[in-house]
From TrEMBL:
Location within or outside the cell: Cell membrane
Catalyzed reactions per annotation: a 1,2-diacyl-sn-glycero-3-phosphate + CTP + H(+) = a CDP-1,2-diacyl-sn-glycerol + diphosphate
One Gene Ontology cellular component: plasma membrane
GO MF term set: phosphatidate cytidylyltransferase activity
Gene that this polypeptide is encoded by: cdsA
Protein name: Phosphatidate cytidylyltransferase
Family: Belongs to the CDS family.
Pfam families on file: CTP_transf_1
C-alpha cells in the first residue's frame, strides 16, 4: 500500500508540474473543470446522494456555477471564509453538530458549493494573475503542513486534536505541520517571491491551519456517511477530495490574505 501511495503521489507531482508550467492555458482550464466536476461527484456521494444521475446533475450544476462565481470572485472568497468559520464550529462541537448535517441532503449539497466554488475561483485567479509558480507555492504550504503533521504526529503525538472526528490527529502533529509550512513559506514566498518574512509567516500559518480544518471537515462528512474514502479515483490515495481537501480549503484563504496584506496583484 505504501509503495502504491508513493508511486501515485510521484505521478501526481509530475502531472501537476506539466499542467502548471507546460500545458497551454485552455488545457489547464479544462483539467481544472474536470477535477471540480469529479470533486463535486465525490461530495455528492459524501452527502448521501445515491442516484448517479442526480450526482451527475449536481456536478454539472457546480460547473455551471463556476462562471458566476468567477464574476463575483470577491463574494465567493468571503463566503469561503464564512463557511470555514462555520466548519470550525461544526468540527469542535462534533458529534453534536451532526444533527445539523443530518437535517437533509440540501444542507450538505449547499455546503459543497461553499467549499468547491471559492476553491476554483482562487485557483484560477492565482494562476492567471499571480502565476503558476505562486500557485504551486500556495499548494506547497498545504502539502508541507500535511507531511509535517503526519511525521511529527507519528513520532510525538500524544494529545488528540479532534478525537471524535479523526482519532489519528494530534496537537503535536498540528504544531509540526504548521512549523513545516512556516519554513516552506519563508523559503518560497520570501526567498523566491521576495515577500516580507512577516507576511510569509502569516500566510503560511493561516493556510496550514485552514488546510487542517478542510481535512477534518471531510473526515467528519465521511464519518457521517460511514465510508473510509471519498472515492477510489487514485490508487492508494482514495478519491480526489481525499488528496485535495486541504488545498480546497487553503487556496481561498491564501488569496484573501494576499489581498488583505496588499501584496502585488501581478507577479509578472
Amino acid at each position: 500500500m505504501l509503495k502504491q501511495r508513493v508511486f501515485t503521489g510521484a505521478g501526481l507531482i509530475i502531472f501537476a508540474l506539466l499542467l502548471f508550467f507546460v500545458a497551454p492555458k485552455p488545457v489547464f482550464a479544462v483539467v481544472v473543470l474536470a477535477v471540480i466536476f469529479w470533486s463535486a461527484w465525490e461530495w455528492a456521494n459524501l452527502s448521501a446522494l445515491l442516484s448517479k444521475k442526480t450526482r451527475f446533475f449536481y456536478s454539472a450544476g457546480v460547473l455551471i456555477l463556476v462562471f458566476p462565481a468567477l464574476k463575483w470572485s470577491q463574494l465567493s472568497l468571503l463566503l469561503a471564509l464564512l463557511w470555514w468559520c462555520i466548519a470550525l464550529l461544526a468540527v469542535v462541537s462534533y458529534p453534536r453538530s451532526a444533527t445539523c448535517w443530518a437535517k437533509g441532503v440540501t444542507v450538505r449539497l449547499v455546503a459543497g458549493l461553499f467549499i468547491l466554488l471559492p476553491a476554483v475561483v482562487a485557483l484560477l485567479t492565482i494562476y492567471n494573475y499571480l502565476g503558476a509558480g505562486l500557485l504551486l507555492s500556495a499548494m506547497a504550504l498545504v502539502w508541507a503542513a500535511d507531511i509535517g503533521a503526519y511525521f511529527t504526529g507519528r513520532a510525538l503525538g500524544r494529545r488528540k486534536l479532534a478525537l471524535a472526528v479523526s482519532p489519528g490527529k494530534s496537537w503535536e502533529g498540528l504544531a509540526g505541520g504548521v512549523m513545516c509550512s512556516m519554513m516552506i513559506g519563508v523559503a518560497l514566498l520570501h526567498c523566491v517571491f521576495k515577500i516580507s518574512v512577516v507576511a510569509s509567516l502569516i500566510i503560511a500559518v493561516c493556510v496550514s491551519l485552514v488546510s487542517v480544518l478542510g481535512d477534518l471537515t471531510e473526515s467528519m462528512a465521511k464519518r457521517e456517511r460511514g465510508i473510509k474514502d471519498s472515492g477510489h479515483f487514485l490508487p492508494g490515495h482514495g478519491g480526489i477530495l481525499d488528496r485535495l481537501d486541504g488545498v480546497v480549503a487553503g487556496l481561498p484563504i491564501f488569496l484573501l490574505l494576499w489581498q488583505w496584506l496588499s501584496l502585488p496583484l501581478s507577479m509578472s
